[in-house]
Design goal:
The chain is α/β, with parallel strands linked by helices. The chain has helices spanning about 15-25, 45-55, 60-75, 80-90, 95-120, 130-145, 165-170, 180-185, 235-245, 260-265, 285-305, and strands spanning about 1-5, 30-35, 55, 125-130, 150, 175, 195, 220-225, 250-255, 305. The strands form two sheets. A seven-stranded parallel β-sheet has the order 3-2-1-4-5-6-7, sandwiched between helices. The radius of gyration is 26 Å and the shape is elongated.
Length: about 350
């Protein structure tokens, strides 16, 4: 069983997407979180059930932690002593990281004790993000003598970096979300065989520019999927659709996802309107141009569809199936085919 350690469980879209694929592959996994998520970004049955199954580390039961620490030298023997030495004297970026590491060792002792008492198999401990939750995962794997791995992102590697060199050294593999991350880990002492790239982006063997010129008389489709939040830029996409309408392009735009901006994006009266010149009369060329602009406005309303059936029965808004079929619930999603092999 993989024990997957996070800061707030599936309160993060990345965690939900990854675990949905792990479970779909039939791999046993237990999700551990330092704290419960403030909110769920997904409303599928799978996501709700996974959130219920998530094992929380906080709030800490002080009495139980005391007895876990008391028994740790006997339960974990030399592994506890070596981890304790590392917490006090290992390589750290600054004093705050040192103090946080000592505190997280205490949490890891109690967490590892619980796993040990449960009798569950530990085939791998993986941390998504490598700051505080990564420290707990590292020490938990250290105490249980289990393989340790992690995925790093951004703030956990730079602004909130903590014991990075030790975490690189102790990992049996590290997931790199880009070649930049791979080069960064190599620079900080990682071995090439430790590093596995799982790109944070689209698979270019499935999504690539068309090899033939587009038929200008054919309506083309724009498909965009993700969480409906401001930083994803869907309002910019709708603005871009306005430009296409003004150019007289024939297209359809489908936005799939769920999130706090769903209602706002679905309101067609909020869609940007084509530019409209000042009306001086209702006859002649000006009136004909006005009618054309009204027609463009109607096309824009017809072309923009937000949400629709995309989010139904989906573990996460921007999760895609990996078997070449339509993802579950994506009734409008086009079937994907691999890039043809080069001649």
């Amino acid at each position: 069983m993989i024990h997957y350690v996070t800061q707030n469980g599936i309160g993060n879209a990345w965690v939900a997407n990854e675990l949905s694929r792990v479970e779909a592959a039939g791999i046993p996994v237990a999700l551990h979180a330092m704290r419960a998520p403030d909110k769920l970004l997904h409303d599928s049955d799978w996501a709700v059930a996974m959130n219920r199954r998530t094992e929380l580390m906080y709030p800490l039961p002080l009495v139980a932690i005391f007895f876990s620490l008391l028994a740790a030298p006997f339960r974990f023997r030399g592994r506890f002593l070596s981890a304790l030495w590392n917490a006090f004297f290992g390589r750290r970026e600054h004093l705050r990281a040192r103090l946080a590491g000592i505190a997280h060792l205490v949490v890891a002792v109690h967490w590892a004790t619980g796993i040990l008492k449960s009798g569950r198999k530990v085939s791998q401990i993986h941390s998504q993000w490598i700051n505080s939750c990564g420290t707990i995962a590292m020490y938990g794997a250290w105490l249980l003598d289990a393989p340790f791995s992690w995925t790093g992102h951004a703030t956990d590697l730079f602004r909130n970096r903590s014991a990075l060199l030790d975490k690189i050294e102790r990992a049996n593999f590290i997931i790199c979300i880009s070649t930049f991350h791979r080069d960064f880990y190599l620079k900080h002492g990682a071995r090439p065989e430790q590093l596995v790239i799982a790109y944070c982006g689209i698979d270019l063997s499935w999504f690539y520019p068309p090899t033939e010129a587009r038929d200008p008389n054919k309506t083309y489709r724009i498909v965009s999927s993700g969480r409906l939040v401001e930083k994803k830029g869907f309002s910019d996409l709708i603005d871009a659709c306005k430009i296409l309408v003004n150019r007289g392009e024939k297209f359809e735009c489908v936005i799939g996802g769920s999130g706090p901006l769903e209602a706002e994006l679905q309101r067609t009266d909020q869609a940007p309107q084509p530019d409209r010149p000042h009306q001086r009369d209702r006859q002649g060329p000006a009136a004909r141009e006005d009618r054309r602009l009204h027609a463009r406005r109607r096309r824009l309303r017809a072309a923009l569809r937000v949400g629709e059936r995309w989010r139904r029965r989906r573990p996460a808004a921007d999760d895609h199936g990996s078997d070449g079929e339509r993802p579950a619930g994506d009734l409008d999603a086009p079937r994907r085919h691999p890039r043809p092999a080069a001649a």
